[in-house]
Write a structure and sequence with these properties.
Layout: H1 2-16, H2 58-72, H3 83-100, H4 107-122, H5 128-131, E1 136-142, E2 147-151, E3 154-158, H6 165-177, E4 189-193, E5 199-203, E6 213-217, H7 226-232, H8 237-248, E7 253-257, H9 263-271, E8 280-284, E9 296-300, H10 314-321, E10 328-331, H11 338-347, E11 354-358, H12 362-374, H13 382-392, E12 395-401, E13 407-419, E14 422-431, E15 447-449, H14 457-462, H15 475-487
Parallel strand pairs: 7-11, 7-12, 8-9, 8-10, 10-11
Antiparallel strand pairs: 1-2, 1-6, 2-3, 4-5, 5-6, 12-13, 13-14, 14-15
Helix pairs in contact: 2-3, 10-11, 11-12, 11-13, 12-13
Length: 488
């Protein structure tokens, strides 16, 4: 272990030799801010990688980790052991394991190494601190040496604490085993979730060339509510009132958007408006929706087993949900033939159902639903599919991730009717981009009514849901009304 002691001493010297902040190697700190000449012929370069994080050698890390797990044994899984008692025993065992490996049990590096081992044993290794950081919304592990996170809508690289690919693999195995899933060479991709509902995707060799790869979409400890979306600028109070009226009036809603635009978050907020007395069945690949109503039945898919049998798909669950006497069906995402079953459910008395699709505009959402319906395996005429869509879906809510990193609802669109072979759409709310951006590059626009009263407004009022005229009054109409009032 003398080599390890030499490495630790060398690392300490490197820390002491680090230049002042703002300076770079071989350059005075006062000159650090000078920019290099711009060369238009030079290819774009990536941002500099963060300084590598000092970690234990792979073999030593694996040996200490194995020894700690062996020493603690069943204490790690005994719920009767208090957290403070387990933490104390854990620290003692780590110190003993380091002493056995002839590692000095003092100093900043030792504390870092001890924390690394502790996170490996009772947490998710180097990403444990990132998962506990509320400012991080996504964690992306591009192999053992490269880790990116998303903060405030921006993706930045952070120092990796993984020692090798096997270290990443151990963390992946720990995550997927906790939810009864598996990942191996015969099944090298997996979707899973953390106990808090965060979405996990992992892919390993031979599919991941420089992997393993791990992507975690974090969910807030407390689910976002409508007030949070108003604060973020995703919606405003008037559009929230309108969408709440649509939910209470049992309109069928499709939330549309690209990857990472916040579709599931918005679906969760919209689902919170469902009256508590109704029976809600949710269907998801991995459970993410967090509904607080009492009469909720949550189902998630099951992958095939080792013999490639026993798979339960979203389509199987949607069909089964129709036999569970649901008032509403909420499907986390339509990405296949289940779109046909969802349309049939919306058309056969399950009003007020909701789902999400991947698309970039309300018109694209219709095309996407048509394509997914054809994936059900039935040779249906396009006109018949469009008639089903026009009859089943009432509202499309379009989410867009803007260049400033914010997620905004840009369209709330009514599906009107069929004209010939085309489904006609009517925008009820549109995002106004004309306000431009502020000094920080943040869009100043708002979601503005178009002034058109939707055709289903009378249906909502007949069902006892109030829809005031102010919901559809745009700024031009409001200014005109105020001027007329002043003239009187």
């Amino acid at each position: 272990m003398s080599a390890l002691r030499d490495r630790i001493n060398s690392a300490r010297k490197d820390i002491e030799r680090q230049p002042p902040e703002g300076a770079s190697s071989g350059q005075p700190a006062s000159d650090a801010g000078e920019a290099a000449p711009h060369d238009i012929l030079r290819p774009a370069t990536a941002a500099p990688a963060p300084a590598p994080r000092i970690s234990l050698p792979p073999l030593v890390h694996a040996e200490v980790h194995k020894r700690v797990v062996k020493e603690l044994g069943p204490l790690l899984f005994d719920d009767a052991v208090r957290d403070d008692e387990l933490e104390a025993r854990l620290r003692e065992t780590i110190a003993a394991a380091f002493a056995h490996a002839n590692i000095p049990a003092t100093g900043e590096l030792y504390e870092q190494f001890a924390t690394d081992i502790r996170n490996d044993v009772v947490g998710y290794g180097p990403i444990e601190d990132l998962l506990n950081d509320d400012s991080v919304t996504e964690v992306m592990v591009n192999g053992p040496d490269i880790v990116f996170v998303e903060r405030d809508g921006k993706v930045v690289e952070v120092a990796s604490g993984f020692v090798d690919a096997q270290h990443v693999r151990r963390v992946i195995d720990k995550i997927v085993s906790n939810v009864g899933r598996r990942i191996d060479e015969s099944s090298p991709m997996v979707d899973a979730r953390l106990p808090d509902g965060s979405r996990v995707n992992a892919i390993i060799a031979p599919l991941a060339i420089d992997g393993p790869f791990l992507t975690i979409r974090k969910f807030a400890r407390d689910p976002f509510m409508a007030a949070d979306l108003v604060k973020f600028g995703t919606l405003d109070e008037r559009s929230v009132r309108f969408l709440r009226a649509c939910i209470e009036g049992k309109l069928n809603i499709v939330v549309s958007g690209g990857t990472g635009t916040g579709k599931t978050t918005l679906l969760n907020v919209l689902s919170s408006f469902i009256p508590s007395g109704e029976r809600i069945v949710t269907v998801e690949d991995a459970k993410e929706l967090q509904l607080h109503q009492r009469h909720v039945l949550c189902m998630e898919t099951r992958p095939p087993n080792v013999e490639r049998a026993g798979e339960i798909t979203i389509r199987d669950l949607v069909r089964n949900s129709l036999r569970m006497r649901p008032d509403r069906i909420v499907v986390g995402e339509c990405r296949g033939g289940e779109a046909l079953d969802m349309l049939q459910a919306m058309n056969t008395g399950h009003d007020g159902s909701m789902t999400t699709v991947h698309s970039n505009s309300p018109r694209d959402a219709l095309s996407r639903i048509e394509t997914l319906t054809l994936m059900a395996g039935f040779e249906l005429p396009i006109r018949a599919i469009r008639e089903q869509v026009a009859s089943a879906v009432d509202v499309i809510v379009q989410l867009t991730r803007l260049r400033d990193g914010t997620r905004r609802v840009t369209h709330i669109t009514e599906i009107d009717a069929m004209e010939g072979d085309t489904i006609t759409l009517q925008d009820i709310y549109l995002f106004d981009f004309s306000a431009g951006v502020d000094a920080n590059g943040r869009h100043q626009g708002v979601l503005e009514p178009t002034g058109v009263r939707p055709g289903f407004a009378e249906k909502l009022e007949d069902s006892g849901v109030a829809v005031g005229g102010d919901m559809f009054e745009n700024s031009q109409a409001r200014n005109l009304r105020e001027r007329m009032a002043d003239l009187r």
